[in-house]
Amino acid sequence: MKNAATRNTRSSTRSLDSRSRRELARSSSSRKPKATQRTSFIRASEDDAQFVPPSKCQCESCQLRTPSAAYQLERDRIVASRFNVLKEIDQSIDDMISDLEQLVMFQSISVEPEKLLESCRALDWMANRLTDLKFKTYDYPIADNPSNCFVDPHQKVLFAKYFSSPSKNTLLIYGHLDVLPVQIDCWISDPFKLIAKDNLLYGRGVTSGKGMIVGWLQAIECWLKVHNDLPINIKFIVDMLHEVGSTGLQAHITARSDFFADVDFVVFDVNSWVNNINPIVPCSLTGWAHFGVEVRGANKNLESGLASGLVYEPMIDLCHLMNGLVNDEHEIQIPGIEINMKRLSTAEWHLLESAVFRTYEYREDLFVRRLRFEDNKVEFLQNRWCKPTLTMHGVEGADSHPGCRRILPMKVMGKFSIKLVPDQEVKHVFNLVKDHMRFLKVELNVSTQLNVNLLNGIEPLSWTMDSKLIKAVCRAVESVYEKDVITTHAIPICLPIANVLQKLVNKPIILLPYSKRIDKHHHENESIESLNVSRHTKTCAALFAELSTLRPKCKCNVLYQYCTLRGVQEILDAERNVDLNKVAVEKKWYQFTQKAASSDDHPTRSRARSTTYTLKKYLLLPFRCKRKIKRRHTQST
Amino acid sequence: MKNAATRNTRSSTRSLDSRSRRELARSSSSRKPKATQRTSFIRASEDDAQFVPPSKCQCESCQLRTPSAAYQLERDRIVASRFNVLKEIDQSIDDMISDLEQLVMFQSISVEPEKLLESCRALDWMANRLTDLKFKTYDYPIADNPSNCFVDPHQKVLFAKYFSSPSKNTLLIYGHLDVLPVQIDCWISDPFKLIAKDNLLYGRGVTSGKGMIVGWLQAIECWLKVHNDLPINIKFIVDMLHEVGSTGLQAHITARSDFFADVDFVVFDVNSWVNNINPIVPCSLTGWAHFGVEVRGANKNLESGLASGLVYEPMIDLCHLMNGLVNDEHEIQIPGIEINMKRLSTAEWHLLESAVFRTYEYREDLFVRRLRFEDNKVEFLQNRWCKPTLTMHGVEGADSHPGCRRILPMKVMGKFSIKLVPDQEVKHVFNLVKDHMRFLKVELNVSTQLNVNLLNGIEPLSWTMDSKLIKAVCRAVESVYEKDVITTHAIPICLPIANVLQKLVNKPIILLPYSKRIDKHHHENESIESLNVSRHTKTCAALFAELSTLRPKCKCNVLYQYCTLRGVQEILDAERNVDLNKVAVEKKWYQFTQKAASSDDHPTRSRARSTTYTLKKYLLLPFRCKRKIKRRHTQST
């Protein structure tokens, strides 16, 4: 494995212009001590936590209220760099593979507590990598899940931020480095060693967290190489407990909500391909409601040899009650459960119809005899995505250990969850469940005490597909895949942490397509097309550029003196030591005249469009340029 | 707490005759090292384990083939001592209370693994106490239950034996020293401190193991004081894991089956009073069959967010299947389940009818709203004792932890048990259950795989009430309680270890009545009438005497040179230094002539009976006596 130092040297020698080479060499030489190196470069306020939000923007120099020439110049530079970045990504495939190789080697299986140290090491690797990429990183211990009783090493989460400029949008990227356990004998090669074979990359985690995060890292690295800065501000949450439900992260995010105050968008990678041709940008998330049906008999557990047959047993009553939730075909029997459900549109029906999904493959993969609705693909996929479904998870309080215990449990809780889809509501579904259980209790003449609890509930989400944001995302994806992107509500993604983050930070969610349906997602012999990995990296890079075109909002109302913060961009501008105003005016003028000339050269173009274009451009020009044009016009006429 | 040394001194100063005082003092002084002391007294073969069972008795001096005078003399001495022993018990109440006090102080709660050390200490106390009573003790570690992962101190079992003579019966006593957990705030006093109040003894364990074992200890001590020997040979199994199902003991017993080779009877104390007036000697044990209904779907657990609604869920199918086992009134729905059940006789019906059992008290004690058959006492008690009942214990393999896990379990096992009553058979019931589950699978159109397993099965037992043994037991109980004893099959006792031991050693079981229904058995504020404790001690003592009257069987076929083993009795005889033959002849002669004289004094007695008596006695007399009588007769005629 290459260590951080060699990586740093390598990237510095490859940087494009002398300025950035100087910059990177300086940061490399001053890397120890780490803290100094970080603060020497990024001047983000250390005491974000103590800000007093002003009622409105108080900064005189707010770039967003009166955009300066530097701001305009940077936007142009980003447009100009974008093409080079994508080209750079094509040339950095080896770096990307090297990153993925190192990440795959960590056996960060989060469901196996004894592998916690591996997860921590993966997180440290990530922190080093981000530090090299001029990020400021923080890792926080997370409160343990009571059922996992490991103490040291402690489970952690990594936060990181890169602050380029107050006049840029901020993107929050969620990534995770933990993987599912492996059945080692089912793998043709070592699951923790990246193997490239027939244009496929094999290794645990390549279709989930590890593969995704490599894309972001490489996109950032290439932007820094080409542009010496990022087109947007970026924040990271890197999780190591994703596969065990990110326990504790929710509480931690809530406690550190100041970190998210300036976030404009949140992005998640998802595996949402349907037909393997058109990438999909889903615009909805499923929710869920987790219920506990508590049935209580006597005030203590009894010995079955003594009390069997004398009391009404809670476990038997629970069985009767749970039985009434679903019929023999496993259809939910709770009246009214589908009332608020969004119906499929014709387009959505056709999308599901066109899905590359073979139920028999799914069936064979799971080794089951029969699937629900296996003869009707659309019905099957509707159940998969757009309809509420019920799962029984287990029973708490009853005998769950191997062997025979003669205990007659006197307080048991049956646990089931219902997947919610837009536009269902947790509260409404809870009421339906309560009513149904009460009805069953009366109908079955149950004597034991019944209590229906909502153990956890997350509302499903959906958002408009016509927003500027979604359009920008689609542009980014389309520019890479060169296929029409499908935006849809028909494929709500099940990503609990996304619902939680959305609720907490109240920011739009971007769901970016990652591995295709033909990739072996989460399977044994997990693999992904190498092409898909590099495409994902390009999508990430393109997304940065696209998001930079969206008009940012001033964050002075949430982050004290946000607009007066000095970011990377300002330092670079100062280093360039150019009269920004003069440069900007000259450049705008040049562009405008060039455009005007080229529009005159094309007589086939309609006059109306040309005028609109000119007028729009004219309005966008700074005042000085306008004066120049006016003068020219008066001269020519 | 008094230590073993002071106890020893106390008992030795109280012993009745100088011989035994000498004996005990000697054993006390030579108590260290223990091994020497034990072997100096009891000459039981050390290598019991290596015996080669001969085809028939090979010993020339077999007491049982040709009973010697010493054998006859001992039987007479036992009869003579019995009254004194009961008197001695009345005078030793304080000793008994002191024993119980010490035992109650051990917090030997076996369901709490952290209290294991306390249980071990209780067992050590017991071992010391038995050593003082001339027992040879052995403690063995027992294989841990895999679910209890404590390693040291290790769980143990105590075996002990007292070998008086090869011509005496051997009784195996099962006792246990562990108790149920306490809810400390529900007790009016410290549950681990014996409190005497209003003729009641309060303390955890007084109505179960600890109270019972004290009775046996005191009965043995008093017999040794009065008789300097025991009327029978005694073996002990002292368990410390009774309340957690004696896990591991069954395997250990099987492995050490040589220990039980010479056992004639096995005795258990049970709480089988029905009307609080007539003691009950039950003649049956319930059995049980523990089933696991395994339902299997895919080859791995799934994430409910991804697979919910697509597969037929094992947990839902299990719920449907288990639901078909019992109806809403919790009646077993397995066809034919009651076919082999023994029906109640009229006498048995009347016995249940007369039971002092108030269903409302039971209901209030458990804090439940309604009991099954609470308006019909006989029906209720029939369900309690004489009818098969079904209990659902829980589900293995499903989510049983607090909190919400989004797992869709793919292999679950529902566990239930059926209580079996005489004359049901485990195998037959297993077949019925299998057939019913298969029927339900077809009826409910279940697609997941079903497997019905018999996890554990113990046959129910019942034995004749007319045997000499049961009559002897009844005589013992009646002599103490002075009430008619009821023997019945209508109250099968639920005592799993008894079924196991019976099956292993294949010896008759004696179920001795202990605490009454009004005693608070296993409850908080557990208490027992002091009178009942002393009565139990007397019953134990009387039982020793009664069992000694039953003709013992020679064990040479199972225990090599059994008849030539020297026991306590032989040593004592040698110490007494009397010509046993002469004594025996003189005594027999004296008795015979006395009887003959007294029968002559009663002219009301029928001549026939008197002749029979005389003839019977004559036949029983040793040859020497007969010659004397003959001589006398010839002289007188």
Question: What does this entry look like structurally?
Answer:
Chain A folds into three domains: 345 residues, Zn peptidases (Aminopeptidase), CATH 3.40.630.10; 128 residues, Alpha-Beta Plaits, CATH 3.30.70.360; 59 residues, no CATH class. The longest helix of chain A is centred in the N-terminal third of the chain and has 23 residues. In chain A, the strands form six sheets. A six-stranded mixed β-sheet of chain A has the order 1-2-6-3-7-18, with helices on both faces. Chain A has a four-stranded antiparallel β-sheet with strand order 12-14-10-15. The N terminus of chain A is likely disordered. Chain A contains 21 helices and 19 strands. The first copy, chain A, is elongated and about 105 Å long. Chain A is α+β, with helices and mostly antiparallel strands and 637 residues long. Chain A is 42% helix and 16% strand. At the A-B interface, strand 11, helix 9, helix 10, helix 13 and strand 12 of A face strand 11, helix 9, helix 10, helix 13 and strand 12 of B.
